[in-house]
Structure formats: C-alpha cells, structure tokens
Amino acid sequence: MSNLPASPTALVIDDEPQIRRLLRVTLEANGYRVFDAATGQDGVAQAAQRRPDVVLLDLGLPDLEGVELLKRLREWSKVPVIILSVRDREDDKVAALDAGADDYVTKPFNSAELLARLRAALRHVQPQGADAIFRTGDLEVDLSARIVRKRKQEVKLTPIEYSLLRLLVTHAGKVLTHRQLLTEVWGPKAVEQTHYLRVHFAHLREKLEDKPGDAELIRTEPGIGYRLVEAER
User: Which residue, of 31, 54, 132, 157, has the fewest CB within 10 Å?
Assistant: First the structure.
C-alpha cells in the first residue's frame, strides 16, 4: 500500500512557459495539484504560502540563481526539491545536491522517469524512526537492530559498509554526493578521498546485489555520488 499523499501538491519554479505547461499537464494527469512560478522571488513566496509536498526547480531563473533559491528554502523547509535543468555539468549537479536538492534531472527529461523520481522523493518526506525497517526487493535493513538481510538471510557488513548503507537507506532515491558520504562516515578531512567510496561500495555490491556489475540497487552517479534505487511497488 502506498504511503504517498492522496493528492500531492507540486510547485514548479521555471521561467519557460512551455516547460510549466508540460509539467502541469503531466503532473495533473497523474493526480498532482500544481502551482507554478516564473521567477525565483515568486517561487519562494509560493513555497511559503502553498507549503507544497514537492518542488521542481530550474537553475536558470531570471532574477535569482536556482542554487541560491534552494539555500534560502533550506533555511526553513525540508520539502523535497528536484532540480530540472539544461545544465548537465558535474559541478552544477554537485553544487545543487550539496545545497540540499533531493535529485537532479537534466532537460529534456523523460516523463515516466521524472514521475518515478517524484514518487521516490515523496516516499521519504517523513524521516524513518529509529525502529524503522526498510525493505526494497529482497533487501531488508533493520535500522534499530543494525541487521541487514537478503532473502531473509543475514548479511554480515563491516561497520563502514553498514554506515554507508544506512545513509543510502535513510535517503533512498536521493543522490548523496561524494562529499556528503565522506564527511558523514570519515569526517571532513576525508572529503578528497573518493577512492574510499569506490572500494567500500564495490564490497557492498558484492554482498547485496545479485549481479554487482548491473548496479540495480546501488547506482553510481558518475563524478557526483551514489543513489539507492528502490524496487517498484
């Protein structure tokens, strides 16, 4: 049974009228209530007034850089924010994710993929409690007991492997940047040591994935970070 809001509210902040129309048609056809804004200032005001369930944000706004708007939003709101932008450089994606974006989709986008990203973001609006049990496909993670099972068989992880998996699970569907992962697990002095992540994620995939090379569960976002992909419900 889905735990998504019955009629989630989406706020689209984009200066292109064609994109706003396309998103309105697509989202309303899938049960969303949609509001939109063409400028950053109006977007901030509507976010405060409407209190949307999710925000779709363009980076190239006429009056305010999208990353700056995102930083302002994060001062008072944890609403999921998905960036929609023509910018596809790694540093733009990393800057947006580090500023608090939940996901980053490059224009032109596939509507089915965007809707799946929205569902993933909305499923995790409410943080899981300390006793939560996370399940996706054959994987089960008991966050209170710190036990990981695959097909009901316990999987032995090292403390570092578990710490990385816990971060992915508590932010399932969201890209976590190299910097975020390294800072959380090894501390701020390790932010340049991306080889740590390659080694430990390779071990995690060997233990958790049926075909580690396919990255069906733990997906690499090249030059950016990692994402835990949930099985469709």
Answer: 31
pLDDT tens digits, one per residue of 14-73: 999 999 999 999 999 999 999 999 999 999 989 988 889 999 999 999 998 899 999 888
> For residue 146, what are the contacts with CB-CB under 8 A and spacing of at least 6?
162
- For residues 168 and 216, membership in a common domain is answered with yes
Closest CA to 42 of 17, 69, 24, 21: 69
Q: Do residue 78 and residue 115 come from a single domain?
A: yes
> Peptide bond before 108: cis, by omega within 30 degrees of 0?
yes
CA 150 – CA 135 distance, rounded (Å): 10
Q: Which of 116-130, 153-167, 209-223 has the highest mean pLDDT?
A: 153-167
The pLDDT value recorded for residue 114 is 93
Give residue for tokens 């965007």: 114
Angstrom CA distances, 36 to 13, 28, 201, 210, stand at 6, 12, 39, 42
